[in-house]
C-alpha cells in the first residue's frame, strides 16, 4: 500500500482561464480593451482571444462597438438564478425598501459563502450623499465590517442571546462609510444572512446611530417573524462595535 499522500486534483486550465477573465471584468466594474484584459490576466493575445471568442459565443461576454468587452447576458442570468435559489427575494426586498424609507440610508442583505460574504440584494438611498454599491458583490469575511461580524456569529451565540445583536463598524473596507448589521435566521436557528444599513460617516453621529439601530431592529424583527424565527421584542437589542473598531 502506498504511503504517499494523495495528489491534489488539478483543474482544467482552459476553464480556469475563462473564469479568470470573467473575475477580472467583474472586479474592473467597467468594459475593458482586449490588450488591457490580456495584461490583467497575464495571458498572451492569441490565448485570451481564443477564450474571449468562446465566452462571447455563449453570451458570457459581449463585445461593444468600440472593441471593448463587458459581461454578457448569460453572466447576469447566472447571478439572478443564484439569487432565486435562496427563495428570499419576496421576503427581503420589501424589508430593504422599508429600511431605506425609514432611515433615508442605503440597505443590503448579505449571505455567507465559505470565507466570503455575498451581497444578494441592495437598495440605495435617494439622498445626494449616500452609500453606493459597486458591481462587485463579494468581500472577505475577515474585513471586520459589521456585516462580516453578523455573518460570523456562531449558532451557540444565536441560541443563547436574549436580545438582538447589532454590530457597528466605521471606516472599514470603505473609509468614509459606517454600517450597522444584524444576523437573520430561520426558526431552526440556521443563520441565513445579515440585514445591513449603510450611511456616510459624516451623518453617523451617536444620536443618528441610535435611530438607525432602532429602525434596523424593528425591520429585522419583522423579517425574522416572516421567516418563522424568534422575535426579541421591541427595543430589545444591544449595539456591539466590530472588532476592528475597538481601540
From TrEMBL:
Residues 74-229 form the IclR-ED domain. Residues 12-73 form the HTH iclR-type domain. It comes from the Bacteria. GO terms for molecular function: DNA binding; DNA-binding transcription factor activity. One of its GO terms (biological process) is negative regulation of DNA-templated transcription. Keywords: DNA-binding, Transcription, Transcription regulation. This is IclR family transcriptional regulator. The lineage of its organism: Bacteria, Pseudomonadati, Pseudomonadota, Betaproteobacteria, Burkholderiales.
Amino acid at each position: 500500500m502506498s504511503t504517499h499522500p494523495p495528489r491534489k486534483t488539478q483543474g482544467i486550465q482552459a476553464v480556469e482561464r475563462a473564469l479568470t477573465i470573467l473575475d477580472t471584468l467583474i472586479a474592473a466594474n467597467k468594459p475593458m480593451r482586449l490588450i488591457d484584459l490580456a495584461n490583467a490576466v497575464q495571458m498572451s493575445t492569441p490565448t485570451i482571444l481564443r477564450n474571449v471568442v468562446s465566452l462571447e459565443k455563449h453570451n458570457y461576454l459581449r463585445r461593444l462597438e468600440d472593441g471593448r468587452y463587458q459581461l454578457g447576458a448569460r453572466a447576469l442570468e447566472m447571478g439572478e438564478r443564484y439569487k432565486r435559489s435562496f427563495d428570499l427575494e419576496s421576503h427581503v426586498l420589501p424589508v430593504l425598501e422599508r429600511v431605506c424609507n425609514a432611515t433615508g440610508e442605503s440597505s443590503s442583505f448579505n449571505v455567507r459563502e465559505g470565507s466570503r460574504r455575498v451581497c444578494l440584494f441592495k437598495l440605495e438611498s435617494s439622498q445626494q450623499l449616500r452609500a453606493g454599491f459597486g458591481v462587485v458583490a463579494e468581500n472577505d469575511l475577515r474585513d471586520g465590517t459589521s456585516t462580516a461580524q453578523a455573518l460570523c456569529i456562531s449558532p451557540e451565540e444565536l441560541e443563547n442571546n436574549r436580545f438582538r445583536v447589532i454590530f457597528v463598524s466605521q471606516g472599514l473596507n470603505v473609509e468614509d462609510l459606517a454600517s450597522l448589521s444584524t444576523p437573520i435566521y430561520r426558526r431552526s436557528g440556521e443563520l441565513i444572512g445579515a440585514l445591513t444599513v449603510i450611511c456616510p460617516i459624516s451623518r453617523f453621529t451617536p444620536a443618528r446611530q441610535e435611530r438607525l439601530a432602532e429602525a434596523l431592529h424593528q425591520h429585522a424583527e419583522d423579517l425574522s417573524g416572516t421567516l418563522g424565527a424568534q422575535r426579541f421584542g421591541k427595543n430589545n437589542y444591544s449595539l456591539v462595535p466590530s472588532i476592528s473598531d475597538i481601540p
